[in-house]
Amino acid sequence: MEKKISTGEAVKRVMREIGEFRTPSVLTPIMMIGEVVVETLIPLLMASIIDNGINKGDMKHILLVGGGMLILALTGLFFGVMGGVYGAKASTGFARNLRRAMFTNIETFSFSNIDRFSTSGLVTRLTTDVTNVQNAYQMMLRMFVRAPFSMIVAMTMAFIINARIASIYLGAVILLAIFLFFIMKRATSYFQKVFKQYDALNESVQENVNAIRVVKAYVREEYENDKFAKAAENVYNLFVRAENNVIINMPVMQGTVYAVILLISWVGAHMIIQNELTTGNLTSLLAYCMNILMSLMMLGMVFIMITMSSAAIERIAEVLNETTDIANPENGITEVPDGSIDFNHVNFSYRQGGGDWVLHDIDLHIKSGETIGVIGGTGSAKSSLVNLLSRLYDVQEGEVVVGGHNVREYDLPTLRDQVAVVLQKNVLFSGTILDNLRWGNKNATEEECREACRMACADEFIERLPDGYNTWIEQGGTNVSGGQRQRLCIARALLKKPKILILDDSTSAVDTATDAKIRKAMQEFIPGTTKIIIAQRISSVENADRVIVMEEGRISGFDAPAELLKNNTIYREVHETQTAGGGDFDMKKGGEN
Hints:
This protein has helices at 7-15, 22-54, 59-108, 111-116, 119-161, 163-210, 212-217, 221-247, 249-273, 279-321, 382-387, 412-418, 433-437, 446-455, 459-462, 482-494, 512-525, 561-567, 569-579; strands at residues 341-348, 359-366, 371-376, 397-402, 405-406, 419-422, 431-432, 472-473, 500-504, 530-534, 546-551, 554-559. It is α/β, with parallel strands linked by helices. Strand 9, helix 17 (512-525) and strand 10 (530-534) form a beta-alpha-beta unit. The radius of gyration is 35 Å and the shape is elongated. The model is unreliable at 582-593 (pLDDT under 50).
């Protein structure tokens, strides 16, 4: 479950990422205030032109004051442009810092942290949510400062000119503010829900694109289209409901503006006839009326953006506040002595602080340099067992010992460099083959890369490629086969020259002959490395020193293959089923993963 925090705490956490953009964040409202001051002075000069220039026929006064108005207009233009420049710099910089801080924190997450957030949810937070916050922040720097200041100054000037007419403004502002409050309160709940629907929409897109070959192979385009359409429809419906509440805000405000202008014109005309008000003052009052009511409309837009971004801020703060469940110890051990492994009565659950045990009382001991096979049925926790070695997860009870030390005592980068894992899902990144290989060792020479590929039997297909080791790999390795991906990932892991090498069902896409070559090469070239092979094929583990047989999170057997064939029912039945050509074994009887 994702951790929930209050809106106030979320805002405080998110605002810490303004960082080096505090200066433009301060200059933006200053520029907006300067623009408001200029706009406030212009109606006074306009009134003077009408009363003391036009009405008296004083052309000199008209030109003099008109020149002053031109200078003020240009000054206001400067303030407005600079406010826009600083506002854009502050908001886009703020968004950049948010994305960078979120991504950096995500990179520290343990597997258990990542389990709390869906991949699509993290993508939405890094993109749509940050964009909403960016837009809201820019509007707050500009409009949220400008609108109230303009409204207050214009209201003050209106009362100075004529309190009776200014009271009309004040009444209209109070009524519109009450209306706006109820509209925003009602719309907020819809905007908070819509982002969860964005997650579902992104998930549908991501899943479809990643599995497009499977979709086409099973002719499931229509089903995927329907699923996406449903997700898009949910987003649409929530936005329509929210906008239906918000959209009424604009016509009500505009209607109020026109009504107030008509009322002021009617009252002002009577006051001019009775010599209680000059024509110039009425013109100024109408200008201030527009300033006041337009400022209120701007505030309404700002509140809409704040409402939309409040949910986004909370979701962003959840990622920023998430702390890794696996902390790197101070003064951790920086050298792994050897590849010996001990599980001392380990119990493990994926749910921190509760949940059913995935591994039950695991107690086993492996010597450095041994080759250990692991087999078991689907859900027997084979991968969970090996994930504990490199602290991808931490155990709740017991201890995992590598090289004579508890894995919690090691410096994390040191431990993970010496415990190389080739996971079930083989992932390659966009770049050349050499770029991908050097994930295992960034300083590896081309000859070292070639040697690792020879051990992984990857050299045979690489050398047939037009660009050889400089061949470009597409994102996810989509331009190479599954077996080629597996061999490249094995070579990448071998470049680490680890103390422990874990192959988590990582040769399932290669033929048995190639599988045998890879195992033989590893035995010859890295004899001191402890090798743990999780496999579906019995042939992949039958030459191991010992084999672990897993059943429902427990160790059913741990012995040499020949002994297990005699004494362990699960191993014997898997062996007989596969060697007899019967295909995959029934997982209910302890079959293959």
